[in-house]
Amino acid sequence: MSRLNAGDPAPDFTMAADDGSIMSTDDLAGSRYALYFYPKDDTPGCTTQACELRDNWSRVSDTGVEVFGVSPDSVKRHAKFREKYALPYRLLSDEGHRVAEAFGVWVKKMFAGREYMGTERSTFVVGPDRRIEHVLAQVKPAEHVDQLVEALSA
Q: Which pLDDT score, from 0 to 100, does residue 121 have?
């Protein structure tokens, strides 16, 4: 499946969060929210992205939009990652990568000459009407926050 675009309806989801709660599209109905998909907890790029977001959290939270990190890591691994770096936002576990597939960000990747399937680093801003408002595709970890704040402020 190809990556979803602005204007597309956001897929329904239910995912466990690192704090033990369950988040679903029903819980977020009528609200704007952002899902930032990333490959793996506690890896260099993902840690940079997570900490940049943490360090600029007031800029993000001032928009009033709830932001969630999403990766195929387990709730337990998410909880350790969030605690280790004092992340102020919840991480959602997409074990089995069903949600990443639905958003079109479970893709073929290449590293060290090896081909594999993994999560594309992309962010989706979803409007209160459950339609995707903005897509930040293949973002660079250090540039994510500025792009996200711009999209959330639009």
A: 97
